[in-house]
Amino acid sequence: MDIFTLKQSIQEVAELTATAMMKHLDPSFDELKFKDACKFAGTRWLKWHIKEGNIQRIRKGTAKNSPCYYSRTEILALKKAESEMAKILN
């Protein structure tokens, strides 16, 4: 493993850990509206994972038209899992 790959892996884990800690301290930090989640993860990527059921929406309220949010931590963890899987398969 070269130094660049090691540095990138450490940064990804640190980002995921920091996001999980922020979720613990301030749960509203973790919640992203669909528009913000698309900016954060990419529209095509997010829509595909929602369709596949890999990312769950979080409803704010019980009404049918209550807003849906997506977890920043869940998105980051899924992106990390995909990158690790790609490394294993290659």
Strand order of the largest sheet: 1-3-2
Strand content: 5-15%
The geometry reads as globular
Radius of gyration: 15 Å
> What structural class is derived from the secondary structure elements?
mainly alpha
Spatial separation of the terminal alpha carbons: 14 Å
Largest sheet descriptor: 3 strands, antiparallel
The residue fraction in helices comes out at 55-70%
Q: State mean pLDDT (0 to 100 scale).
A: 87
List segments where confidence is low: pLDDT < 50 over at least 5 consecutive residues: none
Order of helices and strands: HEHHEEH
Number of strands: 3
Topology diagram in text:
Blueprint: H1 3-25, E1 31-33, H2 34-41, H3 43-52, E2 58-59, E3 68-71, H4 72-89
Helix pairs in contact: 1-4, 2-3
Textual characterization of the structure:
With 90 residues, the protein is mainly alpha-helical. It has a domain at 29-90. It has helices at 3-25, 34-41, 43-52, 72-89, and strands spanning 31-33, 58-59, 68-71. A three-stranded antiparallel beta sheet has the order 1-3-2. Helix 1 (3-25) runs antiparallel to helix 4. The two termini are 14 Å apart. The relative contact order is 0.15. The mean pLDDT is 87.
Tell me briefly what this model is.
The protein is mainly alpha-helical and 90 residues long. The protein is built from four helices and three strands, in the order H-E-H-H-E-E-H.
Salient structural properties:
90 residues; mainly alpha; 3 strands
